[in-house]
Design brief:
Keywords: Membrane, Transmembrane, Transmembrane helix. The protein is mainly α and 196 residues long. It has 7 helices and 2 strands. It has one domain. A two-stranded parallel sheet has the order 1-2.
């Protein structure tokens, strides 16, 4: 039942990504070059709403804090993030949108996924060297949150309630999404094409 539910949720999420244009490299590139910010606004709205619901739900006892997962901070994550950003800018796909784009039949997305799998395999083969380099050692306390979340096993970097901070950050994301214009560069003259 869990696998079926995961497939249904994944298919629904993928369909929504396709519907908002996230499977189109032109839309993603437009966002990264600040020409088309509708997708960025949608992403920020979703993150903000999710943050408010998750942390508000934790405060009300509706969400179990034990399910909260925090990843370790280390230099390798920063390097990997830069590599992901460069790959995203070059290809017009991130891992999630690439898989969804492949499901819509885009051949370039299949090549993107193949490259990602090849990169993952190369990382696995060379993992001992990366481990020995020290780039995978915890920094900033490893698994920490910005603020203390009551009932969680993770320490907070700052002496502020993590639930309140999570809700506040969610509200900020929603406000920024609301006031952000559709374009910062003014170069997207052809975004809206009237019907003939």
């Amino acid at each position: 039942m869990q696998i079926l539910l995961a497939l249904l949720i994944g298919a629904g999420f993928g369909a929504m990504l396709d519907r908002i244009g996230a499977t189109n490299p032109s839309v993603l590139t437009g966002m990264l070059t600040l020409r088309r910010l509708n997708l960025a606004k949608t992403i920020m709205m979703a993150i903000g709403t999710g943050s408010i619901l998750m942390f508000g739900g934790q405060m009300l006892g509706l969400v179990d804090v034990a399910h909260m997962s925090v990843k370790s901070a280390y230099v390798g994550v920063l390097i990997g993030g830069l590599m992901l950003g460069v790959g995203w800018a070059i290809s017009g796909f991130c891992p999630g949108t690439g898989v969804c784009a492949a499901a819509t039949g885009r051949k370039d997305a299949v090549f993107f996924i193949s490259g990602g799998l090849l990169g993952a395999a190369a990382y696995m083969v060379t993992y001992p060297a990366w481990k020995a380099s020290g780039l995978l050692e915890d920094i900033l306390g490893g698994k920490v949150t910005l603020g203390d979340v009551p009932g969680s096993k993770f320490d907070g970097l700052f002496a502020v309630p993590g639930d309140i901070l999570g809700i506040l950050i969610g509200v900020i994301f929603i406000l920024v999404a609301y006031v952000l214009p559709h374009s910062l560069s003014g170069l997207d003259k052809g975004a809206e094409v009237p019907a003939e």
